[in-house]
């Protein structure tokens, strides 16, 4: 049985219940097979009510993104103007990296309804179910030297958190360097991948994963307590097209500000929104574990930690806390 | 006519002259075609004497590198232990980057007798004729954060210049960041390509091009005044295997020192060997042209420039001088 035939059957019923028995007969499959297909459709964004004795009823379809709608909402000069939207990709990062190597322009955007191998920080996987989140990658070709890339990481976090706050009534805190939290639970992760020749950045691919309309049951057990979606946090579904347009606009605005005025304004915005500063923290870094109190950012974008002996140390890479923050939750 | 048939003819003559007429008859081609093939063989490292009325005589064959010989000379733990030697590649950088993405180990080395698309800095091409130079790329997977890569660029220059000085009696000056000069002419260029996820370096591919046994006539006109080979500078041919082994040993030693003790010792070695400090310079940077006097390196590996008004500015990316230094000369 293909899920299309089950779908046609439910759609033909126009919101009326169809019993499992009837479906099973018409499609000539077992009732277990029907149940499995129902679950599969649900992972794709369909909402199907199952009521004992009554059967199944289609109450919601996935709201799919459309290039036309996205472009009509865009208020940017370059960001998102070259746009590639796919139903399924293994990873928008890999897709855009390939385009970048082929010479794609700054601002090129790759979006997918679903990622089968979404990646988070530190090589972890990133849950990217169909139709329920924003899984996208943006290409930058910044005329800045390699050592300044931490600044871009921080800029991305500021852009994302500001854009979300414009549309959704939630209070977002940035966890160093670029995780976005609501009530201590993660709603978004950012992954920057960069390629350089000597100190010249060839390109930066900014991966953004935002849990928009996921439900509690979309999360596997190990993420349930650490992750949250915008819908769960605010109580209402969020229009993904609108949010994508807002993110691109805010990102482009801050990026231009950064190229004109340098890191100072970005630093101030980041420091104003972070939850990492001025509380004791344990940092996992490539050089080992550091304990201390993060006090602020330095000129390069490094995190300045005050150590127990009163001295300070700056770190550019690592994670705050239990080392789990790279995954969705 | 294939150059192999001309080569067999010359080899069969065992050092005795073969007239152009005879070759032309035996191979059934014009004398111009013979002359063109002779030139082609010379670009591959063959030495062919041409004397009017006597004809052509083979007096030297390219000394080819061998994996066996290289490994027997190696005094390293990891550098060069995984070794890939090819006759011709488009670029050792591209070859090694591909291996790096497939998971190659730190220390993996790609060497080629000849590159058809050798790359220098800023996307310039790099002259890499067969058998006459060292064209190689070394894979590093350093446990350091992205902003520190300028330090690796400088480390590479120190390693190369020290290794060459051990074997060849020439006085080498490092031009910021990593060109090696003899009497103001370039003998070597280094190109680092790095890939990072956030601030975590995934890998660095260190490309090294050393003009070892090139002759004046190997250089095209535009490079003739700016480039020089070790053989031209010292008056004697240099054993490439020996030099490769010395470079890998010195590079590994300094790399271990750097991972243990940080940048301070590398910085001192670089400053001791550079020709860039304390003389007025014009720097081309991504942010524009800067004029001033370079005074030293900062903790991150940036070049600190004293400006006319007495203030100072640090640059991480750019070129000193006329902007031509990225090519061989």
Summarize the helices and strands and which ones pair or pack.
The structure is a homodimer of 329-residue chains.
Chain A: H1 3-12, H2 20-27, H3 31-43, E1 47-51, E2 55-60, H4 67-73, E3 83-89, H5 92-101, E4 109-115, E5 133-140, H6 149-167, E6 172-175, E7 179-182, E8 185-197, E9 200-211, H7 221-224, H8 230-234, H9 240-261, H10 264-273, E10 281-285, E11 288-297, E12 303-306, E13 312-315, E14 319-320
Parallel strand pairs in A: 3-4
Antiparallel strand pairs in A: 1-2, 4-5, 5-9, 6-7, 7-8, 8-9, 10-11, 10-14, 11-12, 12-13
Helix pairs in contact in A: 2-3, 4-9, 6-9, 6-10
Name a few traits of the molecule.
329 residues; alpha+beta; SH3 type barrels; 3 domains; 5-stranded antiparallel β-sheet; 10 helices; globular
Distance between the termini of chain A: 35 Å
Can you tell me the residue ranges of chain A where pLDDT is under 50 for at least 5 consecutive residues?
A: 322-327
Number of domains of chain A: 3
Strand fraction of chain A: 25-35%
> Using CB atoms under 8 Å apart, which protein chain pair has the greatest interface?
A-B, 32 and 32 residues
Provide the CATH topology of the largest domain in chain A. BirA Bifunctional Protein, domain 2
- The overall strand count of chain A is 14
The oligomeric state is homodimer
User: Average pLDDT across residues of chain A?
Assistant: 88
List the strand order in the largest sheet of chain A.
3-4-5-9-8-7-6
CATH class of the largest domain in chain A: Alpha Beta
What structural class results from the helix and strand content of chain A?
A: alpha+beta
The rough form of chain A would be described as globular
| Count, helices of chain A | 10
Q: What is the architecture of the largest domain in chain A at the second tier of CATH?
A: 2-Layer Sandwich
The portion of residues assigned to helices of chain A is: 25-40%
Strand and helix order of chain A: HHHEEHEHEEHEEEEHHHHEEEEE
The CATH homologous superfamily of the largest domain in chain A is named Bira Bifunctional Protein, Domain 2
From the alpha-carbon coordinates, what is the Rg of chain A to the nearest angstrom?
22 Å
């Amino acid at each position: 049985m293909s899920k299309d035939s089950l779908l046609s059957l439910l759609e033909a019923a126009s919101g009326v219940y169809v019993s499992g028995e009837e479906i099973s007969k018409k499609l000539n499959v077992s009732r277990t097979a029907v149940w499995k297909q129902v679950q599969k459709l649900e992972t794709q964004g369909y909402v199907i009510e199952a009521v004992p004795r009554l059967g199944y009823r289609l109450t919601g379809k996935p709201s799919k993104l459309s290039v036309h709608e996205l472009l009509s909402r865009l208020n940017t000069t370059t960001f998102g103007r070259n746009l590639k939207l796919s139903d399924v990709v293994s990873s928008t990062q890999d897709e855009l990296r390939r385009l970048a190597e082929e010479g794609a322009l700054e601002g090129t955007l790759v979006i997918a309804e679903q990622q089968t191998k979404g990646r988070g920080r530190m090589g972890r996987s990133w849950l990217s179910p169909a139709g329920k989140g924003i899984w996208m990658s943006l290409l930058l070709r910044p005329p800045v030297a390699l050592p300044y890339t931490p600044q871009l990481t921080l800029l991305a976090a500021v852009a994302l958190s500001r854009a979300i706050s414009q549309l959704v009534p939630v209070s977002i805190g940035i966890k160093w360097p670029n995780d976005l939290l609501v009530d201590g639970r993660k709603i978004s992760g950012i992954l920057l991948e960069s390629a350089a020749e000597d100190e010249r950045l060839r390109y930066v691919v900014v991966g953004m994963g935002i849990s928009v309309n996921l439900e509690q049951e979309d999360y596997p057990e190990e993420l349930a307590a650490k992750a949250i979606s915008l819908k769960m946090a605010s109580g209402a579904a969020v229009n993904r097209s609108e949010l994508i347009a807002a993110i691109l606009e805010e990102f482009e605005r801050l990026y231009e500000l950064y190229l004109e005025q340098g890191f100072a304004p970005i630093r101030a915005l980041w420091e104003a929104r972070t939850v990492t500063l001025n509380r004791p923290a344990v940092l996992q870094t490539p050089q080992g574990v550091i304990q201390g109190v993060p006090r602020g950012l330095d000129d390069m974008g490094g995190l300045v930690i005050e150590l127990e002996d009163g001295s300070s140390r700056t770190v550019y890479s690592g994670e705050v806390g239990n080392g789990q923050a790279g995954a969705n939750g």
